[in-house]
Specification:
The protein is α/β, with parallel strands linked by helices. The protein has two domains: 197 residues, NAD(P)-binding Rossmann-like Domain (Rossmann fold), CATH 3.40.50.720; 235 residues, NAD(P)-binding Rossmann-like Domain (Rossmann fold). It has 18 helices and 14 strands. The longest helix is centred in the middle third of the chain and has 32 residues. The N and C termini lie far apart (54 Å).
């Protein structure tokens, strides 16, 4: 099948590459001529394990190409995906749909025959019907159906998630559209991965409800962690005991500095606003948003306490700044709340991250970047574990402690065993919920 993928951000690029690997003919479109030139030259603008090789393989095979010409890509396409950004709109918490609607209008003007216009971007309930209206307004004679096909890709594991999904969700209203979507995902159906067909509104809601629930699990265990610290329990043991219950599961029960990234912050806000707009306040989701902000501030308090209440002229070494491992994404990362607070209080902050420097240099002014995780600890008064990259899990704790002015460790991801850290020479170890 011929596919046009509008948007070469995280979702569009990964989805386009994976569809081409299924054997489809995919053209990825972006208005950024510089980005398209880089992609044509084999450069990947984002870090995602395995993506560079997948792009090279399918570009060489002639199944994947890149262009700035949307009309050229859409002409003759059987499916046109909208995979543009939907950031939080400044001031009111709504998802900003301006890029989606602009793409819909442009697609409408470019359609030359029947196509299914598929919204891959995360959009509030009702958006696909608005997409249909925008297409018709641009081209009253357009032959098309709309479909909702939300993505469930974890950054750092996106290709595996696309190729081996828990489920594929497809919202359609006509048999013709369903047939096109079934053909698109036929390689997954043949391997018996579930494809769930629903109406448009249900598909849109599934995406938001799923992300809000996962954000709630993270926030719940972070509140339990705060209580564990007061009563002498260990949140890792608590989470393990909870997670063994099949009704709960162990995923997303990891205490830390709060959730971040491209999805949970904006999706919880957008869902809360949708509830308010329909006079159905989602009190749990609203509380999750509030508590997650408080968790980040609590991490700052931990650091201040470890520095005896004074950050000025203290050297603080930070391991990891991206919102999670195996990505260069800094969107809503806890580091963007925690590190500026340290710098603002007069601390000298030194950071190391395998992929975070590219975005982080602009977002975290006033910090010193170090490539080697051992060098980051030189003469530091405190070492902060902020992102649990695999590269940081096996560090020689004794070597780190010996390099520091005062060997103290704030393990905000509970990566290290407290007793082992102390035995290695850290005079003080503080985790989360321990």
């Amino acid at each position: 099948m011929r596919i046009a993928m509008i948007g070469t951000g995280y979702v569009g690029l990964v989805s386009g590459a994976c569809f081409s690997d299924f054997g489809h003919d995919v053209v990825c479109v972006d208005k950024d001529a510089g980005k398209i030139a880089r992609l044509k030259a084999g450069e990947v603008p984002i870090f995602e394990p395995g993506l560079e090789a997948l792009l090279a393989k399918n570009t060489a095979a002639g199944r994947l190409s890149f262009t700035t010409d949307l009309a050229e890509a859409v002409a003759g396409a059987e499916a046109v995906f909208i995979a543009v950004g939907t950031p939080t709109r400044r001031g009111d918490g709504h998802a900003d749909l301006s890029y989606v609607m602009a793409a819909a209008a442009e697609i409408g003007r470019a359609l030359t025959g029947y196509a299914v216009v598929v919204t891959k971007s995360t959009v509030p309930v009702g958006t696909n019907r608005d997409v249909a209206k925008a297409i018709l307004a641009a081209n009253p004679k357009a032959a098309f159906d709309v479909a909702s096909n939300p993505e469930f890709l974890r950054e750092g594991a996106a290709i595996d998630d696309f190729m081996h999904p828990d489920r594929v969700v497809v919202g359609v209203e006509t048999k013709k559209a369903r047939k096109v979507m079934a053909e698109l995902y036929r390689p997954l159906s043949l391997r018996e991965f579930p494809v769930v067909y629903t109406g448009l509104e249900s598909a849109e809601m599934i995406k938001y409800a799923a992300n809000a629930f996962l954000a709630t699990k993270i926030t719940f265990i972070n509140e339990i962690a705060a209580l564990c610290e007061k009563v002498g329990a260990d949140v890792k043991a608590v989470a393990k005991g909870m997670g063994m219950d099949g009704r709960i599961g162990d995923k997303f029960l990891h205490a830390g500095p709060g959730y971040g990234g491209s999805c949970f912050p904006k999706d919880t806000k957008a869902l809360a606003r949708t509830g308010q707009d329909h006079s159905v306040p989602l009190q749990i989701v609203e509380t999750v948003i509030k508590v997650n902000d408080e968790v980040k501030r609590r991490m700052i308090d931990k650091i201040v306490d470890l520095c005896d209440g004074v950050l000025r002229d203290k050297t603080i070494a930070v391991l990891g700044v991206t919102f999670k491992p195996n990505t260069d994404d800094m969107r809503e990362a806890p580091s963007l709340t925690i590190i500026p607070a340290l710098v603002g209080a007069g601390a000298r902050v030194r950071v190391s991250d395998p992929q975070g420097r590219h975005e982080g240099e602009a977002l975290l002014p006033g910090v010193k970047w170090v490539d080697n995780p051992y060098q980051v600890a030189n003469d530091a008064h405190l070492l902060v574990m902020l992102t649990e990259w695999n590269e940081f899990r096996g560090l020689d704790l004794g070597k780190l402690a010996r390099k520091m002015a005062t060997p103290k460790l704030a393990d905000l991801r509970n990566v290290y065993d407290p007793d082992e850290a102390r035995e290695a020479g850290f005079e003080t170890y503080v985790g989360v919920g321990r």
